[in-house]
Amino acid sequence: MDFTKVVSDGYASGESTCSTDTGVCCCLAWRLPKATQASIRKEQLRALHIEIASFRELVGAVQIEVSATAGALQCKDSRHLAISAEDVALRLGQLLCGWCSSQDPAIELTVGMHTGGLDIVHLPGGQRLFVGSALLGASELATEAPKTRASLSKRVFLQIINTPRPTQASILKLFKDCGLVIKLFASGDFRTSLTNRLLVIGCGPAGIQIVRNLWSEFDLTLVEPKDYYEYTPGILRGLCDQEHLESLQVPLSQALDGFQLRHIRGKVTQLHERSAIVAPCSQGPSTPEFEVVEFDYAVIAAGSRYVGSSHWKVGGDDAAQQSREGRQQGLAALRARLVQRAERGEPAVLLGGGLVGVELAAELAHFMPSLQVILVDKCARPLPTMPADAQDYAESWLRDHGIDLRLGKELPREERPLLEALGVREAEVLQCTGLSMCCDFAADLRCRDGYGQLRTNRSMQVLSSEPEGNAVAAGHIFALGDCVSVQGTTVPLSKDIYPAEAMAEVVTANLRNLLQSNSELQELPAQLWELTLCSLGPDDCIFIMNGRVMATGWMAVQMKHQVEVTKMGQMKQEMWGRLVWSLIPHW
Fold this sequence. Notes:
By secondary structure, this protein is an alpha/beta fold.
């Protein structure tokens, strides 16, 4: 039996009468489902084969199998355009499906692609048969694929995303002689998807602002695992008060109602310069293991989470709290445990005397007065990053309301040694410090600092962590919010909503400029207002602005209440909330 080896770039070598090696190439298989085979007209079938031959000749593919209702092609690298065989196969499959969908009546067709081995078996009379894993895998995918969809194997997918992406000009040049493709490019969606595809990762305060600002100007895809928006600054009271929790959440379907975009409930696992791998939240027989999202621009608004706890901020890893119902159940379970601790005379130990620890201690003192609360921190004062008069006010309030302050001493991190050091047998230990950034998926871009934050310039473009610090992806990837470290600011920016929204204004302006080929970019001010509202239960609060205590008591309480009410009104698309926050400057 004679074999002809197919070399790895997809081109056949000279004949060899003894080689049994298997070369690596990419195959595309297509087939008509049984229902289509029974109903398709002869003229449609003839037109389909003419189109396939046209596409095949255009990209230099080789027909390796064909029948009236099925076939297979070997795709080759387009060397002069620097497009891989896998990319050629993907574009070819998309075009074939598009052509079939455009017919009247539409032709149902399935397409599969796989990269693997391929050998040629020569038979007497010059007939050739093709065998190998590339053909087998592509044929199996075509058999199982959804109708009029191009399905590709994981190997093809990884080959595509791990090689340089073809430019729009290269794709146009590749298909320049195909009237159908030119028509698709000129008529809307197909062209749009190659020029202004915007990926937004995360739908917190900053991410949702980007979506609302730019949905009408970009082909926008949002990746967010949760099905709800939550006002994080109020969640400590939401833990203690179920009725208040309801007011802090809104379904994303309501928050995004009227905005044309695609929302993928999933988690980005890898980010590349022009594509992202997304793992969907739901898993089932019809759900893909992953999805590739290609983009021209991306905005990372992934936020942060507390190390070892998802109570105060929900990250993408906590599947149980990705739904609103699951989130409420999780907080209800913690609330019930705290009530049980109080009934048994066991305390709650709060690790961290910063803003979260102080606010939680105060909320527990108000809503669960029978629960003993121990606040632990190695710093000597509560609110260690705040001005001294804020520390004095908070410490006095906590002591007056029975909070046991264990400050100024380094204690073990492990729970059992910690409780022994505190002289406590059993307790509910709650982590209230230690932020971790939710952007591990960007590791391959080499753009994070030593704290895991994404480095950006003041135009909010993501920067390489290399010494020269150039913008990655030609400046087309932006980041904002908790997960960033902005280079060139006077002081590090706080992980709050106010600076995140200021960043969102800059990102919005710069994406619009880039879309219009305007290279002049706006920058974030070198210093922003520093605004903090620290709740001490429902009846007291500290308002701090630029390092000074500006108000306490009733006035500060009303300020925080109005911020929360109007911000949630804005998220719910209520007129008053939208009006108020449209007038707030970000300096």
